[in-house]
Amino acid sequence: MAIYEVTYSTKTTSNDELSFSDIILVEAETNEELTAKVVDIVRKLGPPGDFCVDSIGDNPYETPSKRHIAKKIVKVRDNLVSIINTLICRPNQAP
């Protein structure tokens, strides 16, 4: 079981609005489980489209991955962020 640091924020409609940002820790074994849990948590915060995931990182309490492995992990997690944000914006659909 791995722990991931997920950063999310509110979406703003203009530059004049303030954005709220926060971090949550999510425990998951697979990318699919991580996706489902993050989508579920963010959807509970408000209506679809009000929040978006900014990034997914490693467990902040563990030693970071080696550099060459880390680049591959970042690419996979960037793709997960895109998928999660797409799923969050869809009302009443399970991941």
Describe the 3D structure:
The structure is a single chain. The chain has 95 residues and is α+β, with helices and mostly antiparallel strands. It has one domain. 40% of the residues lie in helices and 25% in strands. It is built from two helices and three strands. It has helices at residues 31-45, 67-89; strands at 2-10, 21-28, 51-57. A three-stranded antiparallel β-sheet has the order 2-1-3. The model has no long low-confidence stretch (mean pLDDT 83).
Descriptors:
95 residues; alpha+beta; 2 helices; 25% strand; globular
Gyration radius, rounded: 14 Å
The proportion of residues in beta strands is 25-35%
What average pLDDT do the residues reach? 83
Major β-sheet strand ordering: 2-1-3
Helical content band: 40-55%
Helix/strand structural class: alpha+beta
Shape: globular
Q: Which spans have pLDDT < 50 for at least 5 consecutive residues?
A: none
Number of strands: 3
Separate helix tally: 2
Main beta sheet, described?
Answer: 3 strands, antiparallel
The ordered H/E elements are EEHEH
Q: How many domains, as an integer?
A: 1
Q: First CA to last CA: what distance?
A: 20 Å
Which helices and strands occur, and which strands form pairs?
Blueprint: E1 2-10, E2 21-28, H1 31-45, E3 51-57, H2 67-89
Antiparallel strand pairs: 1-2, 1-3
Structure in a nutshell:
By secondary structure, the protein is α+β, with helices and mostly antiparallel strands.
